[in-house]
Amino acid sequence: MSRGHSVVKKSRLITAGAVVAVALGAGFATQPMAQADVTADVPPVSAVTLSQGITSAPFKIKATGDRKVLYRKAIVQPGASTGWHYHVGEEIAVINSGTFTRIDGSDCSVEEYSAGESLVEPVGPTTVHMGINKGTEPVELYVVDIIPTKATAPTTAAPDPGCDVAALTSKSTSTGAE
User: What is the CB-side half-sphere exposure of residue 26 using CA atoms within 13 A?
Assistant: First the structure.
């Protein structure tokens, strides 16, 4: 008997829910729809490419557990640097404008990335590096970070690995693709 009683309760609940949905729907139907204001020239779905770049760096995104995905626009002003740091998760960046100079802390190598190029940053404390804008215009980057959900930031500050930044950045170091 309790089984039949349970079915009746469920049936009443579903019926009551349907009545509420119809009543709410009727209430909303009297309101003007925002979509009615859209001109015929606007497609129902659109996408805009904000930036694109090319990279030859091989990479895989490998994650266990949940991740946060951050999509950021970063601006590095002329003469400014990111400071020494490493990434706590995967990062892919597209240089939209300007020239971005990257110094690898493991061997003090320098690479320059121009507008239309991409870079893929390695993960972990053994991959300390710094980015610098040596130019006269701001560097604009579009960045996607895939980081652990408990991370509070995509990067962690790191101590200076001992590279002579002034000497390295005063040389002509165009080793990135042109």
Answer: 6
